[in-house]
Amino acid sequence: MNWRARNAVEIPGASTSPLIKSAPIGGLLSDVVELTGMALPVQPPLESHPNTPSAKQTDTFVLQMTYDPAAISANFGDEATAAANGFVYLGWLNADYDGDPNATINDRWMNAVSGNFYADLNALFPSVSHFAATSGFVGSYADYFDGEISKATSSGLKEADSFQLGDWGVDPQQHTVWAVLNHNSEFAVVQNLRRPFWLSLVWQPAGFGADDKGRSGLRPDDVRLDVRLHAGWCGKSHSRVASVRPQA
Predict the structure, then answer these.
(1) Domain for residue 56, yes or no?
(2) Which of 213, 214, 185, 201 is nearest to 90 (CA)?
(3) Of 54, 89, 120, 236, which has the most beta carbons under 10 Å away?
(4) Along the 248 residues of the chain, how does pLDDT read in single tens digits?
């Protein structure tokens, strides 16, 4: 896992960056974390993923990051309005957007779930189509996990106490964004006036900083990362929570 500060063109107010489609209003509300060391030993064919060749499939995990609500631009309305309209979300840097796997000014920050691998999941469960949800869940990951609503399946439902690859959400009460993912990438909190689809892990001991449902008790003044690693694509799971702060 590696952290980096935002580049100048990624900070809200940058006027020339194509990295965020609604520049100069859009931008990153957090530093950038790169998750590494999670790629599966056997990768699917490159043609199974729209963003090749750098995309690497991982086991399914939930990534949650915090943001400072005071940093949300007034152009997005208040925090609750921004959350309800999908203007704040967990993003990933699509380094292959321009066909060049190297970092260029023509890369794009997109909704993190749009970088997932879905082909294997749809093959395992052919009766239900699985995809990147185009709208997010407004609320905490714990509330989503407890409930039966999924925006990433053709049925719109899931079992209680379960998750679905492709779901994502924003919790304006705890000032967090989260997403159910299965790819290695660079991730950050994004604010964007356009809809998001224009488009080494440190484990804490169970119960440390979290309740029995994995609620991490994040404070809004923290810049913190949570990762929940799940065994399997979907369904019920038991997971530990990792909370990591970037170094000062």
Answers:
(1) yes
(2) 185
(3) 89
(4) 899 999 888 888 775 666 776 666 788 999 999 988 888 898 887 665 655 556 788 999 999 999 999 988 888 889 999 999 889 999 998 887 777 767 777 788 889 998 888 877 667 666 667 777 888 999 999 999 999 999 888 888 899 999 999 999 999 999 999 999 998 889 999 998 755 443 322 222 232 233 333 333 333 333 445 554 443 333 443 333 333 333 33
Q: How many beta carbons lie within 10 A of that of residue 161, not counting itself?
A: 14
Taking the C-alpha atoms of residue 193 and residue 114, their distance in angstroms, rounded to an integer, is: 17
- What residues pair up with 28 in beta bridges, in sequence order? 190
Query: What pTM does this model have?
Result: 0.77
Q: What is the domain extent for residue 58?
A: 2-40+51-244
Q: What is the distance between the alpha carbons of residues 117 and 105, in angstroms, rounded to a whole number? A: 25
Q: What is the dihedral of CA 62, 135, 65, 221, to 10 degrees?
A: -140
- pLDDT at residue 212, as a whole number: 36
Length of the chain equals 248
109-to-17, 43, 93, 103 alpha-carbon distances in Å? 11, 23, 5, 12
Helix (H) / strand (E) containing 182: strand 176-184
Task: Give the span between the Cα atoms of 159 and 167, in whole angstroms.
Answer: 14
Taking the C-alpha atoms of residue 163 and residue 236, their distance in angstroms, rounded to an integer, is 7
**Tokens of residue 86, six digits:** 């999908």
Instruction: Answer whether residue 46 is part of any domain.
Output: no
Q: Is residue 45 part of a domain?
A: no
The 3-state DSSP class for residue 141 equals helix
Angle, vertex CA 180, rays to CA 203 and CA 178, nearest 5:
80
| Nearest-angstrom CA–CA distance, 146 and 149 | 9
